Amino acid sequence: MNKPCPPASNDRRLRGQQKLAEIDGAAGQKVIDALADIAPDFADYLFEFPFGDIYSRPGLDLRAREIATIAALTAMGNATPQLKVHIEAGLNVGLQREEIVEILMQMAVYAGFPAALNGLFAAKEVFAHYQPAPAAGGATA
After folding, report:
1. Confidence class for position 57, pLDDT limits 50, 70, 90
2. Burial per residue of 97-132, b for 16 or more beta-carbon CB atoms within 10 angstroms, e otherwise
3. How far is CA 111 from CA 85, 104, 118, 123, in A?
4. Residue 54: CB partners within 8 Å, gap ≥ 6?
5. Are residues 98 and 82 in contact, defined by beta-carbon separation less than 8 angstroms?
6. Which of 15, 29, 64, 116 could form a disulfide with 52 if both were Cys (CB 3.0 to 4.6 A apart)?
7. Max CA-CA distance within the chain?
8. Is the pLDDT of residue 2 over 60?
9. How far is the C-alpha of 124 from the C-alpha of 88, rounded, in Å?
10. What is the DSSP string of the chain?
11. Is 56 exposed, middle or buried (0-12, 13-18, 19+ CB in 10 A)?
12. pLDDT, tens digit, for every residue of 13-37?
């Protein structure tokens, strides 16, 4: 029997929602929305722990955190949907396409050529569809 999760800490949840929006924009919200009909409590866990607690810690900026995340997901070799979200997140927080390609190529040394190739093809797909978020204030070019 599934028991509902305890109420989320409002501070952690709010901090996580803000950090997720800052990092992933619409892509992060799509993941949360996709969980609504199968595991809405899991969305709370995502807001609270990875984004409310870990991504919000001092010590590394968001660029460095996304470099680590892209490398880890590439090395795992079985997380392509999450890798694509974090490649886009890397672009959102200031990584350049060339830097992402170098991160992925670096993984050939530690995770093997298949993992690096899969990462590069994931990046190619993201780069083809990536649209930067409009600048604050609503101005668009």
Report:
1. very high
2. eebbeebbebbbeebeeebbebbbebbeebeeeeee
3. 20, 10, 11, 17
4. none
5. no
6. 15
7. 53
8. no
9. 11
10. -PPPPPPPPHHHHHHHHHHHHHHHTHHHHHHHHHHTTT-HHHHHHHIIIIIIIITT-SSS-HHHHHHHHHHHHHHHSS-HHHHHHHHHHHHHTT--HHHHHHHHHHHHHHH-HHHHHHHHHHHHHHHHH--PPPPTTS---
11. middle
12. 899 999 999 998 877 788 889 999 9
Tell me how long the chain is: 141
